[in-house]
Amino acid sequence: MSTSKPGYHHGDLRAACLTAALELLAEGDASTVSLRAVARRAGVSPNAPYRHYPDKDALLAAMATRGFHDLRDALIHADTQAADEDRFVLMAQAYVGFGIGNPALFGLMFGHPCSRNHPETSAAAAETMAVLAERVGTLVPAEQHDAFLTGAWALVHGLAALVMDGKLAADDRSALDAMIRSVVETMLGRVAH
Amino acid sequence: MSTSKPGYHHGDLRAACLTAALELLAEGDASTVSLRAVARRAGVSPNAPYRHYPDKDALLAAMATRGFHDLRDALIHADTQAADEDRFVLMAQAYVGFGIGNPALFGLMFGHPCSRNHPETSAAAAETMAVLAERVGTLVPAEQHDAFLTGAWALVHGLAALVMDGKLAADDRSALDAMIRSVVETMLGRVAH
DNA sequence: CTGCGGATGTGTACAATGCCCACATTAAAG
DNA sequence: CTTTAATGTGGGCATTGTACACATCCGCAG
Fold first, then answer.
1. Residues B83 and B136 in one domain
2. Which of A64, A76, A82, B46 sits CB 3.0–4.6 Å from A86 for a disulfide?
3. Keyword Transit peptide on this protein (chains A, B) (predicted)?
4. What's the alpha-carbon Rg for chain A, to the nearest Å?
5. Looking at residue A8, what is its pLDDT?
6. Is the pTM value of this prediction over 0.85?
7. How many domains does chain A have?
8. Do B159 and A156 touch (CB under 8 A)?
């Protein structure tokens, strides 16, 4: 397809840079991603990426945007996998699981200034959170709605952040999921009744 | 005292580097902190810091350690400021308030690999969390203790992360504190007994 | 007091990086 | 076919992290 032409022009360097950058990020930490390394991996000169991204932050923002879309899709998928009471648990597990599976990307999405400064990334983040909010909206009486929504969101995000930071350890994935279930049910059980 | 001698030797360069680095971090984002800028601010040659920190990550870890100690102290102080039921609310407000007041440092503490790799920093983080854990221990029956502790911690940490990310807005500090109180009381209020 | 050794700070150096500029190539619009 | 804008190349610059060799100084043994 697009890989069959080694000519002067790449074909879709923009996308190639994005995937190269995501690969690099997955292989190491944030410092592994340099514009020049991305260019090398895409088989292109060090400056070529600048034709598609005004600066490094723009590339990082594009990566974060992709990350938010993937996270959103994972949440939506989890939301369809169970009956009502379990849905939020599954979404929490999916949220944390995404972080575990893509730690450096997760850190980029929530830790790097670029996600705040780029409107496209902020929009993707908002979309992602809207999925959580919709589910939470079905779980609680109206008068507690706002506080509960905020709390549930914070709970899930905090779980993810702490697990990613190694502050909460688990032997394997299923132990982790069990822990998440236990925590979420304990915390939400208090509110539900 | 130690600032009165402009001679060849600095006196306490180790501490000077730490405070210079913390100043730089407070003035901008993480990228503002370069070893060379730290050296400049301390009025010393670019390589002098290497006599006290083996590499840049070691300096960052020292900064994170300091951050955890300050956060711990803020939590301990909050814990003494009210009667039993309010203590956890005040601790949550202090936790988020620390993040608001030191966003870049907070990001370092919870986002950067150095806090995982340096034992001293990990220890400081554990100490900090122990303060939260102790308070939580008084709020809940033993069989729910683990899940509740994790949940409460995640809740507070998630609140801080979301507020810092601009995902939860508040007009001013007292509106923010009110929101935190509302969320915390909703999530764990009626279980106190 | 002398001189000596280890701790601390300086200088030079190098590779890598982000980014700027001028130039080359090419695909597509006229 | 010609022109033109998009895309990729090459060279260059300042900054950064860090290694190595040298300078300076504090404290201690004689």
1. yes
2. A82
3. no
4. 19
5. 66
6. yes
7. 2
8. no
